[in-house]
Amino acid sequence: MSLLEMVYEAGVVGDGGAGFPTHKKLSGRFDTVIVNAAECEPLLASDRCVMRNYAAMVAEALSDIQRETGASRVVVGTKTKYEREIAALRSAFAEAGIDFEIFGLSGFYPAGDEQIMIYEITGRTVPPGGIPLALGIVVLNVTTVLDIWRALRGIPVTEKFVTVTGEVKHPVILKVPVGTRVTECVAAAGGTTVDPWMLIKGGPMMGRHFDMKEAESQTIGKADGGLIVLSSDHALPTFSRKPLKRMINEAKSACIQCSYCTELCPRYLIGHKIRPHRVMRSIATGTNQNDLADAMLCCECGICELFSCPMQLSPRRINMHVKSILRSSGAKLENQSIYPEQTHVRDYRRIAQKRFIARLELGKYDHHIDDVGEYEPETVSIPLKHGVGRPSEPVVSVGDVVNRGDVVASVPFADVGCVIHASIGGVITCTDGCIGIARKEGART
Ligand code: SF4
Ligand code: SF4
């Protein structure tokens, strides 16, 4: 079996958040592999845990990838301040007799945005609306590289490292089966320290927010790596859960067109024609509809709404709204130019993550998490979709008994999607919308 087939069979998807199927990503033509090990969302620490504890496997997998794909350059992009993780990687590389580069990034946000990382490492801008392959580059999250190591040894993706932090008694990095309920993860971290609480799935900048009731139905997917518990009256959830209609009304009434949202936008600063202040103006006035297309270039990093805007408006949410309207009307980005003159001020406009953390009132949760634990639930509910692409089709029926690692849902190799495996051994309890499994004696776990 080829590397691509093994990665497909193991159901590997990108761990960086979007969940793009890795066999699809690796099927392009590229000469450079960049490993995204920046973990730039505040408070999350799962990727660092992988770097510290699985560096040898990461090194081996990178050698395998380079050998199989013929890539001439392999670079790990990480933050200079992650000294222990860099030391672990250097030692693993030396042990394996390989000499891959480690590129140190300063502690700014969003250093882990793949297009920003490419700019930092190569000085080149991915064409607006394009993907890194346009420059012959593929970017893999460091945890995805660990998943590839396992895939090449016939081990499918059935577990995830999840940072559980914020208002929990014992912040921890938990290894849990895919499909574990998020409320069980929170309980495994000692439970919450506030009531009522809300939950962010992902990082504080780009994660999704759930109240206590909504959180009950949430489970860990293959692209999830963080759970942050905050008090329900914390400023972040209060702001992020503002209704869209109110955000649009505020854009109409309160945007002062200062353009800070544009001036500090990281995608604007690598030369893309994204000007959120003009999107806001178009929404407010209904004029210059051409400016709305800028929203298509937004990576939803959140800098504009959580840091830049002096009026506490939400250009990101407005961009997301405009994007969904444009996409549903079939709009596509064409003939986008790069504006190198915009990059000249970039060095002075990068925003230190520390400042962000302070601004978001998250300072009290910003500590190292070294504790690594495991949690094994009695039941799992595995989503049929783990990010970009189509949902997988169940290949099991209710009542079937499965072992951990058995295929329970699949998509054809040619499609964008992923194979899904039983993350615990047991009996299938559901195949409608998710794969439910309850532990059963005799099934291999
Ligand atoms: S930063 Fe805020 S007020 Fe200024 S242009 Fe952007 S949305 Fe409007
Ligand atoms: S969320 Fe705001 S700052 Fe981030 S890319 Fe989009 S417009 Fe730019």
The CATH architecture name of the largest domain reads 3-Layer(aba) Sandwich
Query: How much of the sequence is in beta strands?
Result: 15-25%
Rough outline? globular
Helix content: 25-40%
Count every helix, treating DSSP H or I runs of 4 or more residues as helices: 17
Mean pLDDT across residues: 93
Radius of gyration, taken over Cα atoms and rounded to an integer in Å:
22 Å
| Fourth CATH level, the homologous superfamily of the largest domain | NADH-ubiquinone oxidoreductase 51kDa subunit
- Name of the top-level CATH class of the largest domain: Alpha Beta
* Number of spatially distinct domains: 4
Bound ligand species: iron/sulfur cluster
Helix- and strand-based class? alpha/beta
In short:
The protein is of the alpha/beta class and 445 residues long.
Description of the structure:
The chain is of the alpha/beta class and 445 residues long. The chain has four domains: 3-151, Rossmann fold (3-Layer(aba) Sandwich), CATH 3.40.50; 158-234 and 365-377, Roll (Ubiquitin-like (UB roll)), CATH 3.10.20; 244-359, Fumarate Reductase Iron-sulfur Protein, Chain B, domain 2; 379-445, RNA polymerase II/Efflux pump adaptor protein, barrel-sandwich hybrid domain (OB fold (Dihydrolipoamide Acetyltransferase, E2P)), CATH 2.40.50. Helices cover 31% and strands 19% of the residues. It contains 17 helices and 19 strands. The protein has helices spanning 3-9, 22-25, 46-53, 55-69, 83-96, 114-122, 142-151, 182-188, 212-215, 235-240, 244-254, 260-263, 276-285, 303-308, 315-328, 346-349, 353-359, and strands spanning 32-37, 73-79, 101-105, 108-109, 137-141, 159-166, 172-177, 197-201, 208-211, 226-231, 351-352, 372-374, 379-383, 393-394, 401-402, 407-410, 420-421, 426-430, 434-439. Strands 9-8-10-6-7-12 form a six-stranded mixed beta sheet, with helices on both faces. Strands 3-2-1-5 form a four-stranded parallel beta sheet, with helices on both faces. Helix 4 (55-69) packs across helix 7 (142-151) and helix 11 packs across helix 13 (276-285). The longest helix has 15 residues, at 55-69. It is globular. The site of one iron/sulfur cluster (SF4) has 14 residues, from helix 14 and helix 15.
